[in-house]
Write a structure and sequence with these properties.
The complex is a heterodimer of chains A (170) and B (589). Chain A has 170 residues and is an alpha+beta fold. Chain A folds into 2 domains: 2-62, no CATH class; 77-169, Sandwich (Immunoglobulin-like). Helix content of chain A is 29%, strand content 33%. Chain A has 2 helices and 9 strands, in the order ααβββββββββ. A 5-stranded mixed beta sheet of chain A has the order 3-9-8-5-6, with no helix packed on it. Chain A has a 4-stranded mixed beta sheet with strand order 2-1-4-7, with no helix packed on it. The longest helix of chain A is centred in the N-terminal third of the chain and has 26 residues, at 37-62. Chain B is mainly alpha-helical and 589 residues long. In chain B, α2 (55-88) packs across α8, α2 packs across α14 and α4 (144-172) runs antiparallel to α6. Chain B is globular. The termini of chain B are far apart. Classes of the chains: A alpha+beta (170), B mainly alpha (589). Chains A and B meet through α1, α2, β5 and β6 of A and α2, α7, α9, α10 and α11 of B.
Amino acid sequence: MVVFNLIYVGLCAIGLVIFAVIFRSTRASQRERPLDIAGWKRRENVWFAVVCVALAGALAATIVKTPWNAAAQADRQVIDVVAAQYGFTFSDATIEAGRQVEFRLTANDVNHAFAIYDPDGTFVTQAQMMPGWPSSLRVTLDEPGTYAVRCFEYCGVGHHQMVTTFEVVP
Amino acid sequence: MIVVERVETATEDARARLRALVVRYVLTSTALLLVGGALGGVLRQSQADLVVVSPALWYELMTAHGLATFVGWAAFCLMGLSFWVLQECGFEVRGWGYRWAVISWWTMVIGVTGVVITVLAQHFAGSWVFLYPLPFSSTGQWTELTTALFSLSVIFVGLSIFAYCFGVLAVVTGPDLGAAPGAGFANRLGCALGLGYLRPRRFSTERPLPFAAIPLTVIAIDMIIATLPLAVLLLLMIVQAIQPSVTVDPLLAKSMLWWFGHPVVYLLLFPAVALYYHLVPRLAGRDLVAGHVIAVAWSIAVVANVIIGAHHMYTDFPENFQQSVNTFSQPLTYAVTIPSAISLFSLAFTMYRSAYDWSQPAARFLAVALVSWLIAGLQGVGLATIQFDAVAHNTLWIVGHFHNMALIHIGMVIFGAIYAFLPALTGRDWYSRRLADWHLVLTVVGGYGSVVPWMWQGLEGAPRRFAVLPGEYLSASQIAMPFVLLIVVGQGVFVWNLARTLGLGWLVAAVGPRPAEDEPERPGEALAALVAACGTALALPALWHSPFLWAPLGLLLGYVAVALGARRQGAWSMLSATLLLVVGLALQL
């Protein structure tokens, strides 16, 4: 997340500087030499290539890690979680720290989502819970303590009350 | 000679009808902005724990706010402005082009009215994405009849989008395209997509295709493809309301929703790009600096735009085909950013070392919009990245992103276009350019001051669509409130300027006639005095609740009043706000 934010802020800063230069260039003193318009049209092809390469690079750097491709470990704990307006039901609300846990997520009525916060209140991960379409979220929670769970998909007028906790023990 | 005069008269009548229609689009959508924006202000202040509304009402207002501002204001206004851009580009909007534009206006008005009734009178609170099967599981908040009426209303909105698409396609493939004699519809469509820049022999036209026509053709094609499945889903929802045994698979319904839900974002962006392509060269005094690669970029967009909706489902990953769909959505979404990157380049270097006419309000709005496009567009690339979306999805970061894109980018383009076009549409010059500057400053400062706290809260994990946010996010919500107020005041300034420009009878009666042309400009003195009075009124609650919130709001409005010209009233407002802060603190102690 920090890397994403730094890249974003850096790119915005570069863009702002470029726009500042462009806006200043509209002053009369800077318009004495005619602009090589044909040249800038050719440079647009180079820009097109730069953008394609940058996007391909970003894709190669990030596509390998997705929320659904965490390999299942043999000794994982399996917890069934069922969501219904407006609460979660856990098959077991105690989880072992440092051991992979697989949450098997289902919903009984409407779309919900399962978002986990660690004991410090920091967001950990999330997955949607869709009626009729179970999914598995595999995660390893290292820090013992009380974790909060919030529904992250709008599910009706009691949505904000759909909160629960589970314990991670050493 | 008589025949020529008749043709000219008929053409001028057609143009006058179009001008009136476009003004109708602008005024109706602006009214919806005021309603939807006010609802947004109520939502935000409730989250900031000021005047708290009940959760049920909050979710109703959330549903209405989304539809009123996104579709009713931004999309609706851009749809109207699109027809005027085409007219100014040499495509006469007549015949079926004009008829579709009229149908689009009426069906949108009917649809939005239905949405307002079902939400505010019948308490539908399924959110503006009405994620199936939630509309049928209301826990007693609304009935299935309400769901059916809401669905029917949204179908009318969909019909409006269809009519807009048909109208645009009728105009851009019509005789003013200048395609080769006998060219079929497919060939003319290819010409309107800009393929003539890549294969000039096959897609030849009498004149170079105006670049503004390309994004409008792209979105017209895409929205027909994108809206059809949603219309089917809405029809099925009406059937289910009557016959409950008829149901839809939730994954299929979600896919149908987002098949439409992402392209509809570009129903805002692509017409906005057309406005840029039309107005920036005019203000810069030179043609758009665009090579043939711009046609390549739009060819990518016309395909990629309608198959990337699954990036809204990155956090849905049942173990089947959906995981592969999600994975492929990342490169496809990246691809659709290419037209934006190329357009930013073209527009920036159209301005570069040009005689850009900064004296025009439109010039300043569009310059700010370009910068906002970059800022919000880069956020979009981040969001298209699965790794980042996994932590940002359904947090307030998303809310910050789309308000950055919709209000402080596309909104600026809309306002810029209104400032540019209204004199030609109405034959009246703007009442005050100084008020236009205030509109710009207040909206941009208020906009970013409002968006940044959302993004900050989102990075901290604050969930979106929570009527009552967890306590740890309260302070950021309260910090945003003065900036929300700036947005409100900014739109008030705009409406005031618009009303005085149009010389609405009731307004003239209330505040006096428009000043003569040779009088010095004294814009909005009465408005400034009103702002000052609002400042004092707003600071009053500091006596019994949150003095550090209400008193600064009063101070802020007092300052705005001073800046607008009501120095004495503004100073009194600031002084009274300071006194109320002191007394409020003393009472609390």
